[in-house]
Amino acid sequence: xxxxxxxxxxxxxxxxGLSFVTRLIKYSKPYIxxxxxxxxxxxxxAMCDLALPDFMSEIINNGIAxxxxxxxxxxxxxxxxVTICSAAFAVTVGYLxxxxxxxxxxxxxxxxxxxxxxxxxxxxxxxxTSSLITRTTNDITQIQMLVVxxxxxxxxxxxxxxxxxxxxxxxxxxxxxxxFLAVIVxxxxxxxxxxxxxxxxxxxxxxxxxxxxxxxxxxxxxSVIRAFNTQxxxxxRFDKANRELTSTNLFVNRLMAGMMPSMMLLMNLITVLIIxxxxxxVSAFQMDVGEMMAYMQYVMQIIMAFLLMSxxxxxxxxxxxxxxxxxxxxxxxPSVSDAENAQSLANCRGFIEFKDVCFRxxxxxEDVLHNISFLSGPGQTTxxxxxxxCGKSTLLNLIPRFYDATxxxxxxxxxxxxxxxxxxxxxxxxxxPQKGILFSGTIGxxxxxxxxxxxxxxxxxxxxxxxxxxxxxxxxxxxxxPIAQGGTNVSGGQKQRLSIARAIVKKPQxxxxxxxxxxxxxxxxxxxxxxxxxxxGNTTVLIVAQRISTVMSADxxxxxxxxxxxxxxxxxxxxxxxxxxxxxxxxxxxxxELA
Length: 595
What we know:
CATH superfamily of the domain at 18-330: ABC transporter type 1, transmembrane domain
Low-confidence stretches: 6-10
Distance between the termini: 61 Å
CATH topology of the domain at 18-330: ABC transporter transmembrane region fold
Strand order of the largest sheet: 6-9-10-3-11-12
Mean pLDDT: 81
Helix content: 55-70%
Number of strands: 12
Number of helices: 21
């Protein structure tokens, strides 16, 4: 295995980040006139600031030297007016920069979210949830801060720096070497910051991901943590992630905190040097006192320009790392997408067929499904049963194309689902996962998720079929009863029933129940399946279940073992012909119950 040096990796990341920063031009197009207006105002602000040392020189040489108080007040008021104009320009530019940055990052955040929405399960396996949240929030915030600094500083600082050099040399060419000395020292300081800070900026974003992951796991698994009395262990785990992030942030902040004193020390040393050299020239009548003071102010402006650019450059490494992380998401092509010749599905009949389907998870060495073949049609219920980990849920996940089959074909009405528009494919599916997922809102808002145009009668009818009427009736608000984030204010069984009702409201041609009855008691399970069988009519129903009682009445039962079909038929046929099915059956029910 070829090892890549860490600095090559960082250089690659920065190059990708900087290339992404150049792509920000795309997002800035709607704000081009605002940016141009800000540049004009920055130019005017720089001109005002560059005029101030000349005012001071005039006041010293022509006012103080001659004792002309009238001239001093006149030039002083003009100097005050120029200062007020400079401040007004700076405030306006700050507002425009914030508006442009917020607008650009709003668009970027929207594109990033839409990209994540297009991901298949394979991409979600690649990017952790905590990392995607960090990239959508913290990383884009870094970009937003950089855009503000680019507009406010990167246009203003060069104008101020170049203008300061021109004015300083115009005042005294003999001391121009001081400027070059200051610039060389400034470049050394900035280079030092880049060398030591750059690796840490990448580490910070990774540590933020880690901290978010620990927090997310703790909040979601709090009941388990309390049940096992592992609060102290989790506190230590959080403390470790927190300390690592804190120490890295402190290291970076120390470097950045050291920059300002370094700049101030350099500024004071240069001031002393100018006074020492300038005083000799003044005593030799080669320079006026006012010119020396103006020269000093211009050199300070040059150093200030470098300081402003340095602050921006300090943001560039961290923002470039964030940009590279955002680019990773935006440039990732979903493994599941519409084919170029994808066709629409006008009238779905509901015939699902698997032809020698094999599937292997990305990066895995072996298939988890082997040569799966079966046919399920409208009006027919097909159930899948088998031991844990035999591939039941994986098989169902191939139908909505959460993953794509590695080999073989999955057909809908005789057409390979890879050649059907994803929107049309999923429009005809009613999918209910094992873990009922509800969104914050109300019972009604969750049930109409499948069909925004569903009437109250349709919703109540679906709830009645799913045995969820009592959940609605026991709340005074009925359909307006609130659902907390993640459905934490309802039980697991209630979640499953509401999820099933949501799928029924959609009225799809194909129902997919991925062990969706596991949290229901036997009585509710039986009543729900009976009502479901009567109401689904000419639709295709696919059920994954662990209970024999759930699959006994299915028209076709498929038994899976280690990713292979080891039995296929009705309950009575499998009891005669499939040893694995009989073992599962007798482990759950008595011979009389099975008969």
